[in-house]
Amino acid sequence: VVDHFTHNIAIGANEKRESIKAESIAVVGDRLLTDVLFGNLHGAYTVHCDTILSAKGDNPLAFYVRRFENNVLSPLLRKR
After folding, report:
1. What confidence tens digit (pLDDT) does each residue in 23-79 have?
2. Which residue of 16, 27, 38, 46 has the fewest CB atoms within a 10 Å radius of its CB?
3. How many CB atoms lie within 10 A of CB 36?
4. Which is higher by pLDDT, 68 or 13?
């Protein structure tokens, strides 16, 4: 859970919550416009995985959006 005002990530269950700074975690995801964007906006390190293990059972819309992100956006955003 992210505290959007302080950019601290709260981890734990029930009443016990420990805050850690967003810059001390990494967000790993296969979507540029959701996972990576969210992590970057909150100051976390991000890791983009451009392939998934299996598209079986994947949401068809998500499949095509991910394909667009990986084929069009990813090359534009790569550091040179």
Report:
1. 888 888 888 888 888 888 888 888 888 777 677 777 888 888 888 888 888 877 766
2. 16
3. 23
4. 68
> Are 47 and 41 a contacting pair, CB within 8 Å?
no
Token pair belonging to 58: 């994947």
Length of the chain: 80
Report the alpha-carbon distance of residue 31 to residue 37 in Å, rounded: 8
Alpha-carbon distance 70 to 76, whole Å?
10
Burial readout 53-69 (b: 16 or more C-beta within 10 A, e: otherwise): eeeeeeeeeeeeebeeb
Q: Which of 42, 46, 41 is nearest to 31 (CA)?
A: 46
Distance CA 73, CA 32 (A): 8
